[in-house]
């Protein structure tokens, strides 16, 4: 089973994202910074990423809003899960805060923690897939909201026995947030010694720092990682993570 994790940067390179997904032919794709309902936003990317992805990919899908954005037009930004498999159930849970209304994507964003989940049938059993775009803080500072949110998130995940969790967590693996996720039972499935998950020339920091802030985790004895990789492709300001599992 192939799984892809990607923060797609509001669809600035949406056509490239679609081409990449089609070429990789994954079973499940988990995306952050997905927009819905606003058309072309020019410098901010596209406001209709979810609609375009749904039209282009022959997959079942779900969307969860994290922010309601008001600019020239109103649109939603959040997370999406796409899969070739059957979605048996889905739901969104705000483990910290609630849907936030902002005037611009890059300014005034309140801390919101959305856990978008889908129960997907894989070889006769249901595996929980969880999509996270975690609260942001100026690296390496970890703020009180992030520390409180990880406890809420761990509580929300504690009853799940078989799951794959992916997302842009906005923290590195030397942080208290990461340590609490591992203590909660999640296993980091990125390639060993992953040093960077930001595109070295597209992301605004332009390679001045190496920050590995995007993750793919699993939990459950029947889920076994076969391989994972982080291809350096120009489809977003973040790099995708591709993982293959035996289930």
Radius of gyration from the alpha-carbon trace, in angstroms? 17 Å
What is the CATH topology descriptor? Answer: Deoxyribonuclease I, Chain A
Give a quick account of the main beta sheet: strands, pairing sense, barrel closure: 7 strands, mixed
Q: Strand order within the widest sheet?
A: 6-3-4-2-1-13-12
CATH homologous superfamily classification:
Endonuclease/exonuclease/phosphatase
Which bin fits the share of residues in helices?
10-25%
Report mean pLDDT, rounded to a whole number: 92
Q: How much strand?
A: 35-45%
Number of strand elements: 13
Task: Tally the helices.
Answer: 4
Based on secondary structure, the structural category is alpha+beta
Coarse morphology: globular
Number of domains: 1
Q: Which H/E pattern describes the elements?
A: EHEHEEEEEEHEHEEEE
Give an overview of the whole structure.
The protein has helices at residues 14-24, 49-56, 144-157, 176-183; strands at 2-7, 28-36, 60-70, 74-83, 87-96, 100-102, 113-122, 125-133, 163-168, 187-188, 214-219, 224-229, 241-246. Helix content is 17%, strand content 38%. The termini are close together. The protein is globular. The protein has a 7-stranded mixed beta sheet. The protein has one domain: 4-Layer Sandwich (Deoxyribonuclease I, Chain A), CATH 3.60.10.10. The mean pLDDT is 92. With 247 residues, it is α+β, with helices and mostly antiparallel strands.
């Amino acid at each position: 089973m192939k799984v892809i994790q990607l923060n797609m940067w509001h669809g600035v390179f949406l056509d490239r994202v679609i081409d990449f997904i089609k070429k990789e032919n994954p079973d499940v794709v988990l995306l952050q910074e997905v927009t819905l309902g606003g058309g072309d936003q020019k410098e901010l990317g596209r406001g209709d990423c979810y609609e375009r992805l749904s039209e282009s990919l022959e997959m079942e899908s779900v969307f969860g809003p994290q922010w309601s954005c008001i600019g020239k037009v109103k649109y939603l930004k959040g997370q999406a899960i796409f899969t070739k498999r059957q979605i048996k159930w889905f739901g969104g849970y705000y483990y910290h805060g609630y849907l936030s209304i902002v005037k611009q994507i890059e300014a005034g964003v309140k801390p919101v923690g959305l856990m978008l989940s889908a129960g997907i049938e894989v070889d006769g059993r249901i595996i929980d897939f969880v999509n996270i775009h975690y609260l942001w803080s100026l690296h390496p500072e970890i703020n009180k909201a992030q520390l409180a949110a990880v406890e809420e998130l761990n509580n929300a995940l504690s009853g799940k026995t078989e799951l794959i969790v992916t997302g842009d967590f906005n923290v590195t693996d030397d942080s208290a947030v990461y340590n609490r996720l591992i203590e909660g039972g999640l296993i980091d499935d990125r390639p060993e010694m992953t040093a960077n998950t930001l595109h070295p020339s597209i992301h605004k920091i332009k390679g001045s720092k190496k920050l590995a802030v995007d993750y793919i985790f699993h939990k459950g004895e029947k889920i076994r990682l076969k391989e994972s990789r982080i291809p350096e492709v120009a489809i977003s300001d973040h790099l995708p993570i591709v993982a293959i599992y035996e289930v």
